[in-house]
Design brief:
globular; 10 helices; 10-stranded mixed β-sheet; alpha/beta; about 250 residues
Amino acid sequence: MNNLKPIIVIPARLKSSRLPNKVLIDIAGQPMLRHVYNRCLQVISEVHIVTDSEEIAAKVTSWGGKVWMTGNCASGTERIVEILDKLDADIIINVQADQPLIEPNIINQLIEIFATTNPMPDIVTPAYPITTTEKLFDPNLVKIVRQHDGYALYFSRHPIPYIRDTNNDDWLKQHDFFGHVGIYGYRRLVLEEYAKLPESSLEQSEKLEQLRFLQAGKSIYTFITEHDVISVDTQADLAQVYARLECKL
C-alpha cells in the first residue's frame, strides 16, 4: 500500500454568495488560492487546480501552476470527477480553495491513513474537537457523528446528538462534538462511481456533498486533528486569517 500515488486537486470558483471572488482576495500580497496552493506543495509536488473561471485560470498560469478548465459544476467533487481521466493517481485529495491556513501535516496524516489502514477506507477526512457553544450551533460549521472506530455515521449542520433536558450552553459538558475539516482523500474507484450516483435526499437536505457517498454505503474514515482550519466564508473569517498571519509575522 505504500506505493500508492496521491495527488492534490483544489477546486476553485469565483462565485460566492457571502464573499464574492473570495479565492482571489489578497492576503499578505498573494491571492488566497495561492496560499492554499503553496501549502499543498509542501506535501506533494503534483498539485492541480480545477475551475470554470478564466480569471482564476489566468492567475494560476501566471505563477506556473497546473490548472484545468471544467464546466459549471454543483460541487468541488463534481469538478474533480470531470477531469478524473486526466489525473494519474490512486488517491485524489480534495483541498478547499478557501482554506489559506491549511496545515500541511493534516494532508500528510490523511495520506498515511490510506497507506496503513486495512481494509482501505473509501474516503478519509479530518475532524477536530468543537470547544465553543457558538461554533456548535453555527450551521456553517459541519458536524461529524463518529463511530468508536473513527468511521463517520453522519454529517450535519445541526449538532447531533440532541442533548435532551439540557441547556444549549451545557451541551459540550455532556458530549464530545467534532467539526469537519473540508478536506477529502478519495480512492480513485470511489470517484469513478460518484459520477453514476444520483444526488441523494440527505445531500439535498443538508447541502453537503459527502452525504451522497454516505447514503450510497461508502465508508468515510475520520481522524482527529487539533488544527481548527478556517474556511473563509465571511468577512469575519477573513479577519481571523489576517489576525493569525499577523501573529506569525
